[in-house]
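quick one: magnesium ion bound model?
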Amino acid sequence: MSEAAESLNFIEHIIEEDLRNGYSRQDLRFRFPPEPNGYLHIGHASSICLNFGLGIRYDAPVNLRFDDTNPAKEEQEYVDAIKRDVEWLGFSWDTERYASDYFQQLYDWALQLIKNGRAYVDSQSSEEMAKQKGTPTESGTESPFRNRSIDENIELFEGMKNGKFEEGSHVLRAKIDMNSSNMLMRDPIMYRVLHKAHHRTNTDWCIYPMYDWTHGESDYIEQISHSLCTLEFAMHRELYDWFLDQVVEPRKLRPKQREFARRNLSHTVVSKRKLLQLVEQGVVTGWNDPRMPTISGLRRRGYTPESIRNFAETIGIAKRENLIDVSLLEFHVREHLNKVAPRVMGVLNPIKVVITNYPEGKVEWLETENNPEDHTAGIRNIPFSREIYIERDDFKEEANRKFFRLKLGGEVRLKSAYIIKAESCTKDTDGNITEVHCTYDPKSKSGSGSEESLRKVKGTLHWVSIAHAIEAEVRLYDRLFIDESPDTHKDKDFMEFINPNSLQVIKGFLEPSLKDVEAGKRVQFQRLGYFCVDSDSSNEKLVFNRTVGLRDTWAKIQNR
Ligand code: ATP
Ligand code: MG
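yep, here:
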């Protein structure tokens, strides 16, 4: 096998084989088919990257198709959010389609099925129908309405469409086989009555087609060559094909359904229904809460489209379901932000340092690089003065030789500034350290080229000048669930595993260059992690989200 062939995923192998067996490249066409009943999540990102990725690889069109057949759950807000998210991920669709565009065509085809003796109106209750369903090993029972005359079926089905009947009074069923070993083939429902306004067709329709009847026929109308869905639809494939058999015309392309494994992410849930529950019950502030595994939540958290695409590419697609550790997603955002995020200094848990031999009132604006990983990112000046903040964790009165930060009698370099030495500290009555008194070496200024500036000390600390620091609210996030796989417990609901400490809000002190920073801006707080300006931020009150720490501390804690 050539190297190129080896790197193909199994869906691409199927397509390559189809091309060898007579499909032409012009026949290839794909779609991404979300139901607008919630916001897209990281699982959808896999499906988006797969479908749009195939479009790019084969230079084929990809439709964005909204599977909008359940007006009870679907809304325009979700349609808008889905479009925004797909675009933000960096993909463009060929045409925007809606299953509801095909309601008339689907209705006409359903009438044709009735006329061909392939569909009938059942007037039993859903409970009665459920009883007749049988089991995987026992046949079902035929409905007493199964052999209604074609004329009676047409009249009833038209009556359903024209609003003559209440919800639940009649359904249209395909007449297939109540003895089939595939229970989905036991006269599946094609239409139900729903007196609900639809976000696009409003009250034009009061019957709505079911997923199985809609999906394949929509693929056929759009002439989709490969209709890719997740594994739970594998058993539906037989029905997908049966429905196509009823309508496909010669010389037209017949879509193929193929299945791949759903992607699950650890410490969260990837299901719109469950995510909606988190929103409705106020566990999070909304679909775009930075703790949510939604595309909009990840965006607000500070994720880049590249990092999500790289993640999806790395995990690839599979034939079997498994759980992907969220630290892999974090790895990808860290990797990308390392290249593109400007470095700034901010202190989140401050302790005051006074440099006793630095003149009072003096301020120096020190040059520092915006991103050592990217020399085109330029330089800026940061203010240095006699009183600064460093992180409380970065100072200890006494410590062993492995502690490379500041201790009494020891030296550290202040990033882009001077070498300081801790001489003494003051404490409050409870014994908490209130101030550290240091001296600095005036000849050790970074970048000055002097011998002292090149002198090596073990530790380098970040800092901010107290007089110049700006305050910001900083939101630190942790896993939303304490369990790796919260929705797989038989005896417990996923809501029982919510992490009560998934959000910690603190005050940070930042260098003044961040004063007018705009929402969405991503930076690295040196030595702390990557942060992003939240949409709640304003000139009066800056708000930062921690996207991810610099190191994978979670995995370390878990392994202790
Ligand atoms: P949810 O349960 O979250 O609503 P869904 O599958 O019902 O998921 P759809 O809007 O119908 O959501 O999904 C659109 C496409 O995205 C489908 O092709 C679906 O198979 C795919 N998809 C959804 N969730 C995942 C996932 N976790 N991993 C991979 N693909 C997914
Ligand atoms: Mg769904």
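The radius of gyration is 31 Å.
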